[in-house]
Amino acid sequence: MLTRETNVKFWAQEKSLSILLIILSIHIFIIIPYGQKTFFQSTLFLFFYLVLISAGIVYMFKSISVRISLFIALALLVTLSSGVFQVSRSIDIINNISIAAFCLLLGLIVLMRTFRDGPVTLHRIQGAIVVYLLISFVFALLYHSLFIINGSQAFKGLLVSDREELMYFSLTTITTTGYGDITPLNAVARSLTNLEALIGQLYPAILISRLVTLELEHSRKN
Q1: Please, are residues 34 and 81 in contact by the beta-carbon 8 Å criterion?
Q2: 3-state DSSP assignment of residue 183
Q3: Is residue 115 helix, strand or coil?
Q4: What is the pLDDT of residue 84?
């Protein structure tokens, strides 16, 4: 049985970045594309959403009481908007904003650990990928909220606010692939997509530069 000290020690290690990458990748590339069209799919979506949140909370906070309180609050929001229950659009928007803020904080902490002094390891590279995916995930949440508010006036090519479609759109935007099957229409949507595309271009360049600098500094010291 894992003790509290063992749990904290594990998430303080670099290999925890690999665990976060695995959880996030499963959620983005497997769970979200299945959608929430059936009760089973909605439950599966909810389960992996909560796993992702749990991993992030354990990674960010050491206090057990803070972990439990934050998990209960986020779990309640996610459950209400998972599709298992019929709820209002307001709950969906609040949930998206809450999870987006949570992911931004998680991404900032992972980024700080990835760029700290020391040798460049595989785990650090995986941590950098975690941040990249989190950015795309955050924008997908924002696009989802925007579609809930403005409907088809926000995006051309979307008739319903399926999370898998908006996640797909976010990934093609951050990688500047731009297939053209979904396009932003109003000013807010265009600004968000421009910002995501800009981040998608700048982040890899800054990341590579920083990792090379860290490796050179480590080599000089040794």
Answers
A1: no
A2: strand
A3: coil
A4: 56
* pLDDT digits 0-9 by tens, 113-134: 888 777 778 888 888 999 999 9
* Full domain range(s) for residue 170: 4-221
The crossing angle, in degrees rounded to 10, of helices 39-60 and 64-81 is 160
Rounded CA-CA distance 152/91 in Å is 20
Structure tokens belonging to residue 187: 């000013």
The answer to whether 165 touches 182, Cβ cutoff 8 Å, is yes
Give the chain's domain count. 1
CATH number of the domain to which 213 belongs: 1.10.287.70
CA neighbours closer than 13 Å in the CB half-sphere of residue 139:
28
pTM across the whole model: 0.85
pLDDT at 57 exceeding the cut of 70: yes
* Pairing mode, strands 183-184 and 155-156: antiparallel
The token duo for 83 is: 């599709």
> Mean pLDDT, to the nearest integer, of 189-201?
95
Residues 38-52 have pLDDT tens digits of 777 777 777 888 888
Most confident stretch, 18-27, 74-83, 153-162, 209-218: 18-27
143 token code pair: 């696009």
In 3D space, the residue among 12, 28, 14 whose CA is nearest the CA of residue 132 turns out to be 28
Cα gap 96→178, rounded to integer Å: 24
Indicate if the alpha-carbon torsion angle 85, 90, 96, 100 is positive or negative. negative
